[in-house]
Design goal:
This protein has about 270 residues and is an alpha/beta fold. Helices cover about 35% and strands about 20% of the residues. Strands 2-1-3-5-6-4 form a 6-stranded mixed β-sheet. A 6-stranded parallel β-sheet has the order 9-8-7-10-11-12, with helices on both faces.
Amino acid sequence: MKITAKTKICMVIGDPVEHSLSPQMHNAGYEALNIDDQFVYIASHVDVKNIENFIKGTRAMQIHGVSCTIPHKIAVMPYLDEIEDIAKIIGAVNTIVNVNGKLIGYNTDWLGILLPLEKLTTLQNKTVALIGAGGAARAAAFAVTKAGAKLTIYNRTVEKAKDLAKEFNGESHSLDEIRNAQSADIIINTTPIGLKQKQETPFPKKYISSNQVVFDAVYDIQETQLIKETKEQGAKYISGIEMLFNQGFAQFKLFTGFDAPIDAMRKALQ
C-alpha cells in the first residue's frame, strides 16, 4: 500500500463487522490497478444507535465512500443528501459516495443477488421464498421480482414481512411457517442466521430438495450450515461470497470510477 495524506478513505460499517472480507477485496483491487496511493479501504464497527454521529463524522473527516452492512442499510437513509432511484425503490442503501461534500446513497446489493442467480437459473415465473425482511431482503425482493419471479417472504416479525410483500406484490408468512417454502424453486436467506460458523440454519435440511436453488446471503470464511446442508441434499447453491463479489464490483466503480479488476479481487479472497 502507498498511503499518503492525499489517499481517500473508504470503509465498511456494520454491527458486527469483524467478519467482513470487503477490505481484502477492495484493497486488492486498488493494488491491481496501481491506485493504492489514491484509495484505501478499512472496516469500522458502528452501533446502529450511533449512525447519525457516524454520518456527521463522515462529513467532518471527508470519508470518500461507505459500504453499509447489517443493520445500517435502512438506518443511514434519513441522513443522506440524495438517494438514487433504484435505492429509493428498494428502500435500502448499501453504498454511500461523498461527492464534494454531498452524500449520495446507492444500492448494489440487488446485483449481488441477481447476477449469481441468473448464472444458475432463469427467474421468470419461478417461485422464490425469501427469508428475512431487512435491507438485504429488500434488495433481493427487488431483484427477483424485476426478473419476473413470484415472491413469498418469511420473517419472524410478520408485520415487516407483510409490509415488504405488499411493496413487491408478494405473499408473506411467519418464519414459523417456513415448511411451506419446501415447494419453492429458489430459497434466499438474508437473515444473519448462521453467521460466525454458528451451527444453525433458517431453513431446515429436511425441507431442501435436489431440484431447488439455495442462496445464503450470509458469508464467512467457512461455509454456513445452510450451504453445508444444501450440498448434502444435492441441491444447487450460491454462497454469500458471490453476493459480496457482485455487489462489490459495482461498488468499486462507484467509489473509484474504474471498472473492478474482477480476477484480482476474487483471487484475494480465494
